[in-house]
Amino acid sequence: MSAELWNSAASVLETNWSGDHMVPSRRLYPHQWSWDTAFIAVGLAYVNPGRAWRDLRSLFEAQWPDGRVPHIVFDPALAEADYFPGPAFWGVPAYGVRPAHGSTGIVQPPLHAVAAWKVYRRAAAHGAACVQEARAELEWLYPRLVAQQNYLTTRRDLGGAGLAAIVHPWESGLDNSPAWDAALANVPADLELLTTYRRRDLDVADAAHRPTDRDYARYVGLVLSYRAESYSDTDLLSRHDFAVECPSFNAILGAAELALAQIAGVIGRTAEAAVHRERGRRISDAIVARLWNPRTRTFHARDVRTGTLSPAHCVSGLMPLLLPDLPAEQVEGVVAEAKSPRFGFPAPSYDRTAGDFDTLRYWRGPTWINVNWLLRRGLLVHGRRDEAEELRAAMVRLVHQHGHFEYFHPRTGEGLGAPTFSWTAALALDLLADRSVPAYARAA
């Protein structure tokens, strides 16, 4: 099984390489996506480390002057009609070396420092020459990764409590998760927008698998609102209808600080390493203070505008396990939630026992490899090796039996969404090859 799965995964990554970056899939996602790039780099390092570094560089070459890393970098060789919402819709002005309309104006979870550290660790296993090259890549990336963190922890701290807020569901990476339903209810759903701006995902994907038109109209409206102010974050809370503190996004933000501490140590910035560790601890504390519900014993998204926690039990609530400073009470609660009938291994994207659990529709039920990969990492961080191995084996079985799909039916395992999906293939390689514990894991 291992050799067959390894070869098929490597083949997917070869197919989806586009010269200087990787696309998630050829038909549905023909540009470069931000957090996809991070997941992909983790696995690509096993078969082509040069491409893993190039993919990360390609993304950060599109970083904005304020530090934000756009959630899509558009391939100028493709036409506007090849993807919606495309470059002209976003209307991003030229900046740095980027041409006008070169990217979107929103972000995705900052997993890139974790990925860069993983790629470096892989290089370190292959001798001094590889280490020297990898260290040079880290030195190039480090200030850019720090700028990304600074943007998110300052300009996006809309609640003033030390957490980053997402201002569009797409920024979470978990686009139509039920975690956003309560906050989205206050966003107008102008279906006329879909007459002016026709969605194109349904041309190549089953409508039953994708977000509804009402949700999509809200997504378009939120972009238009943000675009109208040139994507400025000044006074954003007073003029924008959606602002949410997501447990998954912020757990990754904290994990990025811990990875940056490792990177800073390698490139000789020991003073900065201590700063990153302290920032990671503060983010962990803020997640507990803001997003933990002692009644449900798990984490929930907070609507910054109303101060209320979402009642939905979503896979995003399991992600704070990534943080080694998470107190024992929260660790026990989240592990119990992950193993409960609501989830199980591999975890679906939403509570299996909920009345609106949907086995087909994107982040409202199906199983995704990327968040399960993060969950496994969190289990390892807290010394839960047996559970981590159970989850790893379940993921490997799922992909081997059903293929490198974007996501999977949470009951049958049937592949859903885009086939030959890059992060599924890349993470399959990592699951086959890497049994190590994260460097900042809590001592057993």
UniProtKB/TrEMBL annotation:
InterPro entries: 6-hairpin_glycosidase_sf (IPR008928), 6hp_glycosidase-like_sf (IPR012341), Glycoside_hydrolase_63 (IPR004888), MGH1-like_GH (IPR054491). Keywords: Glycosidase, Hydrolase. The lineage of its organism: Bacteria, Bacillati, Actinomycetota, Actinomycetes, Micromonosporales. Residues 29-424 form the Mannosylglycerate hydrolase MGH1-like glycoside hydrolase domain. This is Mannosylglycerate hydrolase MGH1-like glycoside hydrolase domain-containing protein. Belongs to the glycosyl hydrolase 63 family.
